[in-house]
C-alpha cells in the first residue's frame, strides 16, 4: 500500500509582532519545526504500514531548509521524502499551495491513501487537505478520529462531527485529515537517525511538473491578496480595579447584580 | 505575472541588502545577489533596499468582469434538516453586505427531506432560497455536495459565498473554492464590502498575534468561512419574505466513493460553546483540588467551567472545555476569567464575549487588555468570598 503524508515546516513560535511603522512582520526566520498536527498524520500512516505493509512517503513544499522536517519524518520511520522548492512558489496562498502539492503528488507517486494533519499552526485554515483532494479528483473526509478497518480497496474510518459520530467507508484513492490524538505519535529514534543519515530528500521544482506555467504558482497563482496586517485591537472600554480582596469581591458582586446575572 | 528582478549594478552593499530579508532568502553567490526559494514575496527588499536594486514588476492580467457576479450567498449548514445557528448569523451579515452594494441575498440549502425547513429561512431577510432535495444528499458526502454547490454557483453566479466554519463547512468550502480556482479565507472575524464588490476579509493570523486584511481582487466567487458566534444573528421576523426555488441535478453527478455506514448521536453534553455564562480557570490555580472553588463559583452562577491549555495538559479538565485557538471559540454573555494571564491564543477564543470580568494578580497581564472589568487581585482571596456574596444576594 502506498501512503503519502503532507507535512509542513512552521515557525517554532507564534510570537510575532507587527512593526507599527512599516506594517511588516517582525519574525525570526530561523526557529522552525514540523507542524505538530502532522506528527499524528505520520503516526497514522506508520501504523497502517505496520498492519498492511507498503511504503510511507512524506511531501512538503518550502525553502531548501524545509528538508529538516523530512529528515525528522525519516527518524520516525518514513521511507521517502519529497521537497517541492522553487522561488516561483513564493507568496502562495491556500489555493496555490494546494495546487503545487497536487502537481508534486502527480509527479512522484500514485498513492492509495493521502493523510494530512487537521491544520497547521501558522495558517490555521485546515483547507489545504480538501483542496489537494479536489485537484487530484479523489474523495476526502476530514476529522477522522479512528481507523476502524483497512481493507484491500477501501478504508473504514470514524469521524468526529459536532453532534454525531459517523462511520464511513471510503474507496482508494482518497485523502483523510486526522484529528490529534488519533494515535500518540512516536518520538524520532536515534537509531533511525543514524540509519537514514544518508537517505536523500528528492527535490523537485516547477520545471519538473506537468503544468509549467508560472502563473499557476506562488503569488501569481494566489487569488487572495493580503492588503495589510495590523496588531489586534484592544478593548478600550475597560476599567481596572485594585484594592483589598473584600472590597474587590464586593465590587464584582455589585457588577454582577447590575448586569442581572444574579 | 509578478516577480522580483535584481539589478546587480544598483547594489552598493550586497551583505547589507541580504540582512534586510527576514526569511534568509537572499544569498551572495560570488558577488552576485540571488533570491532563493525561501522568498515569501514580502517585498521588504524592494522597499528598504537601495533604490532600484530589487524591483517588483507586475504584468497586466486579464481582469474578471465583476458585474457578471451578483449576490451574497450563504450555505445553509444543517444536520438532517436541523439548521445550524451560524447560518442565521451569516444571513444577517450577508444582508448587511448586500445592502451596501445593492445585491440580493441567496441561500443554498441541500439535503434530503428539507423542503419544509427552507421556509424558516424566509423569516431572516433572504431574497431567494435554492433548495436541492435528493435522497443521495441525505448524508454529507463530499463529492455530491460539491457537485450541487458547483451547480448552484454556475446557475446563480454569486459574488460572495459565506460558509459557516463548522465541521461540514470547513470540509466543503475549500473543495468548492478549488473547483472554481478562487480564494477562500478561513475563520474571518470581520467582513465588509467595497464599492467594486471586493469582499474585505479580516482574520487572525499567526496564532492571533496579528490580524490580516485579505481581498480576492480578481476572482469570483469570493469565499469566506466564519466561525459560529462571531457574527450576530438578526431578529426573526414574523412575516416571511423572499421565495423558495426548487432545483434538481442529474443523479449521475451525485455519485460518491464514500459510503456512510452509521451516524450515531453523541450524548448531549453541556458544552462551553453554547453556554451563556462561563467561569474560566487558568494557571493561577495551583493544584487540582483548588478547582473546587471554580466549580462552586460556576454552580452559583449557573455557569459552565472552561479553562486554558495548560490545565488540559495537566489533565484536570476534558479538552472539550478548552477555550482558544487550539480549543473552542466561545461568546457567552458573561465570562469570568480566574488566574488567566490572557495569551492571545486564549483571548482569540473568547474576546467576542459580551462581558469579560478578569481576575488576575499581575496588573500587567494581557487579559486586562480585553477585559471590561479587570480585577487586580489574588483569586484565592477573592473567589471564596465572592461565592458567599452571591449566595447571600440570591437568598435575599
Automatic annotation (TrEMBL), chain A:
GO molecular function: electron transfer activity
SUPFAM superfamilies: Adenine nucleotide alpha hydrolases-like
Sequence ranges assigned to domain Electron transfer flavoprotein alpha/beta-subunit N-terminal in this UniProt record: 22-213
A Pfam family of this chain: ETF
CDD domains documented for this protein: ETF_beta (cd01714)
Name used for this protein in its record: Electron transfer flavoprotein small subunit
Source organism (scientific name): Fonticella tunisiensis
Lineage: Bacteria, Bacillati, Bacillota, Clostridia, Eubacteriales
From TrEMBL, chain B:
The keyword Transferase appears for this protein: no
A family per Pfam: ETF
Molecular functions (GO terms): electron transfer activity; flavin adenine dinucleotide binding
Highest taxon of the lineage: Bacteria
Cofactor binding, note field: Binds 1 FAD per dimer.
PROSITE patterns for the chain: 4FE4S_FER_2
Keywords: FAD, Flavoprotein
Record SMART domains: ETF (SM00893)
Alphabetized InterPro entries for the sequence: 4Fe4S_Fe-S-bd, DHS-like_NAD/FAD-binding_dom, ETF_a/b_N, ETF_a/FixB, ETF_alpha_N, ETF_asu_C, Rossmann-like_a/b/a_fold
Cofactor(s) named in the record: FAD
Record domain 4Fe-4S ferredoxin-type: where: 31-59
Name of the protein in question: Electron transfer flavoprotein alpha subunit apoprotein
Organism: Fonticella tunisiensis
